[in-house]
Every structure is written in C-alpha cells, then in structure tokens.
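Q: Start with the shorter request: fold the first protein.
A: Done. Sequence, then structure:
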Amino acid sequence: MADLAIGVNELDFAYAQLNGVEPRAVLEKVTLNLPKGSRCLLVGSNGAGKSTLLQILAGKRLTRSNAQVLGQNVFFQTPPGVTYLGTEWAANPVVRSDLEVSHFLDSIGGYRYKERRDRLLDILDVDLSWHMHEVSDGERRRVQIVSGLMAPWDVLLLDEVTVDLDVLVRSRLLDFLVQETRERNATILYATHIFDGLDSFPTHLCHLQLGTTIAPSPLEWPLNLEQAGAREAVPEEVRARMDDPNRTGSKLLEVALHWLVEDKQKRIEKEVREGGKQKRGARGQGETTNSEDFYKKYDYSAGR
C-alpha cells in the first residue's frame, strides 16, 4: 500500500435520501489501485460516475467506503498534495468578474511558486494582463489550470478540464504532465472524452461502466496481454483493428469506442429489465408526446 497513490477497494456511494425518495446508487464495487508515478485515464459514458469518483478522491464528498489517497482517508484526513481541477470552476462568478489575471494568481499564492507559475504561463500561453470577464472560455480555462498546477502536487485529479483548450496548448500541457510524473513520481487520474493524441499519455486505463469498474482495474497501457483479464477487456476483434497496418487514427480511441458501445448496450438492457422499455431516444411511432398535445392545444393556424 505504501507504493499506492490511490487505493480504492469495493467503494460504494449513493446520494443522500431526500423527500422520502430512496437514495440512488452512483458507484458500486469500485476498485482502482494506482501506483505512484502512474497516469490513468478514466473511461466511461456520460453518467457513469467519473466525476463523482474524482470528487470523492478529492475529499469533496463523504463516503465511509474504503477510499485512500496517499495512504489517508480523503474526506476525514485529506493529505496535502492533492489537486482537483473540474469544469464547475468556470461557472464561479468570481472568476468571471473584472479581475486581472496577475492579481488573481497572486491572491492564491502565485508569488510563492514563481518559477513553476512562469513556466505554466508560457506553456498555456496566458497573458497576466488579461481581465477575467473579457477572455474566452478557453482562455479562462487556461488560467484555471495555471492556478491549479503552479503549486507542486503529488496526485492530480482532472475532470474534463482540457475540453476548452486548443490542440497546441493541450499538447504542450500533456507533455508537461508526463514530465511531472516522471521527474517527481506524481500521479494523475484524468477523466476525458477526447482521446485524440492521447495514445502515448496513459500508463493505465480504468473502465467505469454504470457506476462500476470493469476488471481489470486498472488495465495496463500500452496493452499488456499477459495481465489477467486484459484479453477479455479488449477482445480479439478490437485488437485486430488496432494492429491493422492499414488503419489510421488512435489505438486508444479504438478501445474507448468498444467500451462505450458496450456501456450503451448494458444501459439499455438495465432499462428494459427495470422499466420494461428503453428510456432514451425517440419514442415509438404513433405515440403522442406531451409537447405535441401542448402545441395542438394552442395552434391557431387553422383559424380556430
């Protein structure tokens, strides 16, 4: 356990019961043990529980299940050196106010980490004279990343924060993150739906399906077929497409697409099993929707 940056075993989580409604399980039997120095991509469809897992590991949600970061219970004794960057930051009215970037970074201690701060300013191409209410969403996201990474971290939890970045800045940031893990033995858990250019980034993958990790968790990357469960996690037909000499594009994307197709099928099977029908998508032909009823009632085009 001493070599683990993240230790999660059989973790369960459900939101609290409100107004007599039974709590809904979000995570069940989640297992993810990551060694220090690793870079793990968290792969799963929307609603699989990726953000919830990252928030638990950041100490932002209470759970009494076994979840440790750097050997500590993350909610009751969150260790120093854990950094979480999520998309909700951009909705904070403070970071959309008339606030100069230099003043903002100084207010959160940027002057203490001048060398790292300046390096990140160059990598993310940030202008210290920007005013936060005038910049684009992508530029605001760059400021968030500078503010989050300028203090040295041991475990970095990323939730879709690169989605607003242009290709050049994203590539340079990923290079920086790889260097951090190699030089400082730091660890990254990164949830993303953008796999382009990521083939050489991760050391591990974690497949989260309907709130449950699919073994092996984590899966070594590049794919190690000697790892127990690897052949089942990435079946032969997927590996054949990955190894096709005429293929173009990302091998990692090939694996992610296979998993996401599988996730959708499992979700549909669960919906039918629990409610008798598939919930998402267009309704059956001939079935009138509530919106149709509404517009027919107030449709005066026929001269009524």
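Q: Next, the second protein, separately.
A: Sequence, then structure:
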Amino acid sequence: MGLAINNCCPGLSMRNALFLKAFLIWLGILVLAIANGIFRESVLLGLFVKTAAFILSGILLCLCIFVVTYLTLPWLGRGSTHRYWAVGVFWLVLTLCFEFVLGYVIQGHSWQQLLEPYTLKDGNLWTLVLLVTLLSPYLAAKVRK
C-alpha cells in the first residue's frame, strides 16, 4: 500500500509520502475517536457515573490510538527516532487544530468550554489522550524493535 501512494504520485517526495500516510492514519484515529465519543455518550454514561464513564472512555481511546499506531507503523516505514517524533507532533497538531476549529469556529463554543477538558474535571482524560497521540509513534517503534 505504501508503494501505491508513491506510484500514484511519482513526484511525491519521501517526506511528503510519510506525512500523507501519517495523515491517512490520523483520519482513521479520528473516526475511532468519534466512535469512542458516541459509545461514551450512548452506552458508558448509561452504565456508569460520569467520572467512571469518562475515565473508561479516555483509556479506551488511548488504547485505540496505540493499537492503530502499532499496526500501521510498518506502512509508515522504518526510520529514525526523529521520524517517529515528527509523526507524533504532526498528529498532535492535527488533533488540536481539529478540536479548536470544530469547537470554536463550527460549534461556537467559548474558550472556557474548549479548555475545560484539559482540567481533568469529571475524569476527563483528554490531556492523556493528547500525550498518547504524541508518543504513540515513538513508543510503537520501540515496542516493535
């Protein structure tokens, strides 16, 4: 599949191919994150108190991010530590941009509402999710070696 991206776009540099692949993986993670949120709202909050539901949801999302990273790492290709950190930073920036554009621009939430998940209030593990997003490419590479 890695060759398919390079074959369809022969002028694509190795670096650009890496970030295109990383972007496609991030889109998959985004779909899982949205599904996780739906699962939390429709199932977990009906079974558990709010704090427990948010903690379980956060842990589940962290596991999903790491598993997707671990499984797709061969597609990204082997590389240096710098390569894995670059992908992690890229995913973190994409995630933050998505969150703030969706929340502020599209949904019209206030900055106070947007920053509330970063306080760990009610068991919200969003900061841990962001940390896992950043670290997963590096950690998955370490585990795979």
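Q: Describe the second briefly.
A: The chain has one domain: 21-144. Residues 21-144 form one domain.
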